[in-house]
Design goal:
The complex is a heterodimer. In chain A, the strands form two sheets. In chain A, strands 6-7-8-3-9-10 form a six-stranded mixed β-sheet, sandwiched between helices. Chain A is about 35% helix and about 25% strand. Chain B is about 85% helix and about 0% strand. Chain B contains twelve helices and no strands. The chains are: A alpha/beta, B mainly alpha. At the A-B interface, helix 3 of A face helix 8 and helix 9 of B.
Chain lengths: ~260, ~260
């Protein structure tokens, strides 16, 4: 498999009158096509900043970020970003919410809308397309948000703690749903989270970030010897606890 | 549906009774005041030449309706108010959007806007008369001057407090600042815009009447000033009563409009 995303020696700092906050220090990693990567780290270490850099909302101060060997500046359309909350607009129906991206990029052609319709049908939202977001459960809203992101048919999907706003029960099932959808749509994904078990249950590879200014402390490849893994099965796998302890130790090691 | 329990019924009863009492007391107070006024004038507890009386007001109104002058005065004030309100809405929204689009400009202009907003607008009216002459333009401008600065400031605050995360969403979907305006900021602040406008129509009426005080030959403000000068206090008090009614109706109208819009959202 070829490298889809390359992050090379990226560093970033936030500036204010009171001084600068060095957030990311020399981050490098590569992600292959079809891979599911997770980035974990202590809170406030700059995980979300890293995603904002990858999708081009922020520009790195040093280093470069490449998609398919090309600078991301011109490839923004190939990257989808899912935020912490669903941010569905109450003044729009579910259907017009998921169409938001296509509307903005003026891509409401049949090629795209057909795909959206299909996804709504596949993922149980077709019957709810005309209702307002407040009438949906947390899990359904999150699915709608994912479809809104997928509507633009991105190749790389960035997930910024997409389950953190949900309660634990919902979280487990939404995690299951979203994972299934991402795999079915054959997307490459980068998940950022502070929830270790969530990261382990979904990812093929985990990058552990240090405290600010963040560096990649460790890279861990996960292997559960399963043909068709799902987050729930992984949570019950014997290796799960070993990985958990390994990463836990890594995160709590004070240097 | 299950039948409501006894305690639920009791609760509903209490709420209804309370609502009835409030409505009854409102009406009672109003009638009590009107009757007291009339009786006081009738028995000469107050001098009806300067305090008028409900009956005298009604008579005056009837006479002036007969000769058409009252309709004309009300029509003038009302149309001036509506025109200046429409202009306030348009200018307010456009300028607030402009400020929102250009953060640096808004920072530069902020002190000026704050000063203009807190300035007593009646102080401007004489100036406007001198500059623009005693005509309808001046009066509409006077009406606008009371409401427009507050509108701009309030709308701008609304716009800039609209959710930054939702704006980020637009950017992640490949949108521009214009998209955040059209898809997030404006639709998200419709309720605020409507409630700001509800207050503003009353302010426009205030401004128009101030304008008419000093620079008009027609309108209720003119009638008040003229009436006080020639000691026709029936005119003055009648105009004040009519202004109360107009203010109430305009507020109610916008309230209806607001409710209808929010329902559609």
């Amino acid at each position: 498999m070829s490298e889809l995303l390359e992050v090379n020696h990226v560093s970033y700092a936030y500036h204010s009158i009171d001084g600068e906050t060095e957030t990311l220090a020399d981050i490098s990693f590569h992600i292959k096509e079809g891979e599911f990567a997770a980035i974990v780290g202590p809170s406030g270490c700059g995980k979300s900043t890293l995603l904002s850099l990858i999708c081009g909302l922020l520009k790195p101060e040093k280093g470069e970020i490449l998609l398919d060997g090309k600078s991301i500046a011109g490839e923004k359309e190939r990257i989808g970003y899912m935020l912490q909350k669903d941010y569905l607009f109450e003044w729009r129906s579910i259907y017009s919410n998921v169409m938001l991206g296509l509307e903005i990029q003026k891509k409401k052609s049949e090629k795209y809308t057909k795909r959206v319709d299909q996804m709504l049908k596949d993922y149980g939202l077709w019957d709810f397309r005309d209702v307002r977001p407040s009438q949906l459960s947390g899990g359904m809203r999150q699915r709608a948000a994912l479809i809104r992101t997928l509507a633009l048919q991105p190749e790389l999907l960035l997930l910024d703690e997409p389950f953190s706003a949900l309660d634990y029960q919902t979280r487990l099932s939404v995690c299951e749903d979203i994972y299934r959808i991402i795999k079915k749509e054959q997307k490459t994904a980068v998940l950022v989270t502070h929830d270790l078990s969530e990261a382990i249950s979904m990812a093929d590879r985990i990058f552990v970030l240090s405290k600010r200014p963040a560096e990649i402390k460790k890279e861990i490849k996960l292997d559960f010897n399963m043909k068709e893994r799902t987050p729930m099965q992984v949570r019950n796998a014997p290796q799960f606890r070993d990985y958990f302890n390994l990463i836990w130790k890594e995160l709590n090691e004070h240097d | 549906m299950t039948k409501p329990s006894e305690s639920q019924k009791n609760y509903i009863r209490t709420v209804r009774r309370r609502r009835r009492t409030v409505q009854f007391m409102r009406l009672f107070l109003f009638l009590f005041f009107v009757v007291l006024w009339e009786v006081a004038a009738e028995f000469s507890w107050i001098d009806s030449f300067i305090f008028s009386s409900p009956l005298r007001i009604a008579k005056t109104a009837w006479q002036m309706l007969q000769d058409g002058s009252l309709t004309m005065h009300i029509g003038v004030t009302l149309s001036e108010t509506l025109i200046s309100f429409a202009l306030v809405v348009i200018c307010g929204i456009l300028l607030a959007i402009l400020l929102w689009m250009l953060p640096m400009v808004s920072e530069i202009l902020e002190p000026a806007l704050v000063v203009l907003n807190s300035l007593p607008k009646s102080a401007l009216a004489p100036l406007l008369i001198v500059w623009l002459g005693a005509n309808i333009k001046t009066i509409i401008l006077a009406g606008m001057s009371v409401a427009v600065f507050g509108t701009i400031l309030n709308l701008y605050t609304c716009f800039s407090q609209s959710s930054p995360e939702k704006e980020k969403l637009i950017y992640t979907l490949g949108g521009t600042k214009k998209d955040t305006l059209l898809k997030v900021v404006l639709p998200g602040t419709v309720p605020n815009i409507l409630s700001i406008m509800k207050v503003n129509i009353g302010l426009c009426l205030v401004g128009v009447v101030i304008g008419e005080f000093i620079g008009a030959r027609r309108g209720l403000g003119y009638l008040i000033i003229y009436g006080s000068q020639v000691f026709k206090l029936d005119w003055v008090l009648m105009s004040i009563v009519i202004l109360c009614v107009i203010a109430m109706l305009l507020y109610a109208l916008l309230g209806r409009l607001e409710a209808a819009c929010l329902k559609r959202l």
